[in-house]
């Protein structure tokens, strides 16, 4: 199903429109992309049991939504990009699964316009969608109205410090790129477009989602598995990548290291009123 609710195009949505048809090739189906996604999937399955009703933000081409729907979860998957939603719908029509997710074109900032017929058991956003949000506080407030008390919200966001990135760029003599995440505000290139992104600290994220949500845990995603721009270096080295993925799962929750991956997976719980 494909729905739309008065979406106002943003610079980020327009940029993702342009790369929608190539996004899976650039990230989803790459060796690094699959490795990082498997790490997130393991947590989604652990937190959301079969039968859960889940809201997905920044669904992109629908890879996560289809994965969960095929494992007995009901998913309403949202994205601000019309082209991404169209690709997600088209891919779902050509794949055979147990159940189909519902796709809705709506920006994170406009979740307040989503009709509330029944609260969700939880929500999640994968791979940095929340780093592109202009008003994260309003997103948190609207999620509080959409997620039942005790429900979980999982946010996979770019970390403030990526150890692999710092080492990589320092070795290449690119100091500015090595420390680019240390600045709270920055830009990122997506295809031929440049979009604004925010690198918030864990403390800032907790403050933004308070008092509606409390942080229950956090873990690194892509601690030893490197960022996607290293695909050419490591993508075909299957044994090495498998070892790095094992190390990620072993160390993902360790103090200090859990905040030093390419992404950090934050798990919030909806507080009781």
Please provide a written account of the structure:
The longest helix is centred in the first third of the chain and has 17 residues. The protein has one domain: Rossmann fold (3-Layer(aba) Sandwich). The radius of gyration is 18 Å and the shape is globular. The protein is 37% helix and 24% strand. The protein has 273 residues and is of the alpha/beta class.
How would you describe this structure in keywords?
Rossmann fold, alpha/beta, eight-stranded mixed sheet, 37% helix, disordered N terminus, two-stranded antiparallel ribbon, 273 residues
Instruction: Report the uncertain regions.
Output: 1-9
> What's the rounded overall pLDDT mean?
92
Number of strands: 10
How would you describe the shape? globular
Query: Biggest sheet, open or closed, and with what strands and sense?
Result: 8 strands, mixed
CATH architectural group: 3-Layer(aba) Sandwich
**Share of residues in helices:** 25-40%
CATH fold-level name: Rossmann fold
How much β-strand is present in the residues?
15-25%
Number of helices: 11
> Which structural class is indicated by helix and strand composition?
alpha/beta
Gyration radius, in Å? 18 Å
Report the end-to-end length measured between terminal Cα atoms.
33 Å
CATH class: Alpha Beta
Q: Spatial order of the strands in the main sheet?
A: 1-4-3-2-5-6-10-9
Question: Which helices and strands appear, and what pairs or packs with what?
Answer:
Layout: E1 2-4, H1 11-19, H2 23-28, H3 31-47, E2 53-57, H4 63-69, E3 74-79, H5 82-93, E4 102-105, E5 120-125, H6 136-146, E6 147-158, H7 163-171, H8 175-178, E7 185-190, E8 193-198, H9 202-209, E9 213-221, H10 231-234, H11 238-251, E10 263-270
Parallel strand pairs: 1-4, 2-3, 2-5, 3-4, 5-6
Antiparallel strand pairs: 6-10, 7-8, 9-10
Helix pairs in contact: 3-11
């Amino acid at each position: 199903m494909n729905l739309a609710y008065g979406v106002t195009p943003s610079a980020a949505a327009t940029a993702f429109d342009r790369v929608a048809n190539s996004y899976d090739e650039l990230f989803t189906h790459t060796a690094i992309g699959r490795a990082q996604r498997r790490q997130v999937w393991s947590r989604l399955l652990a937190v959301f049991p079969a039968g859960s009703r889940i809201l997905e933000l920044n669904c992109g081409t629908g890879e996560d939504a289809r994965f969960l729907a095929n494992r007995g979860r009901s998913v309403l998957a949202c994205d601000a990009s019309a082209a991404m939603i169209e690709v997600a719908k088209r891919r779902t029509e050509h794949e055979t699964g147990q159940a189909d997710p519902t796709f809705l074109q709506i920006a994170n900032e406009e979740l307040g316009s989503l009709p509330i017929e029944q609260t969700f058991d939880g929500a999640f956003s994968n791979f940095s969608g929340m780093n592109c949000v202009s008003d994260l506080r309003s997103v948190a407030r609207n999620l509080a109205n959409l997620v039942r008390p005790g429900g979980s919200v999982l946010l996979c966001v770019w970390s403030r410090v990526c150890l692999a990135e710092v080492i990589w760029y320092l070795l290449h003599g690119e100091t500015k790129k090595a420390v680019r995440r240390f600045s709270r505000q920055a830009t990122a290139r997506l295809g031929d477009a440049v979009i604004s992104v925010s690198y918030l600290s864990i403390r800032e994220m907790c403050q933004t989602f308070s008092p509606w949500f409390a942080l229950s845990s956090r873990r690194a995603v892509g601690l030893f598995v490197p960022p996607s721009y290293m695909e050419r270096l490591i993508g075909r080295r299957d044994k090495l990548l498998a070892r790095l993925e094992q190390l990620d799962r072993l160390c993902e929750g360790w103090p200090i290291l859990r905040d030093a991956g390419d992404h950090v997976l934050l798990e919030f719980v909806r507080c009781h009123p």
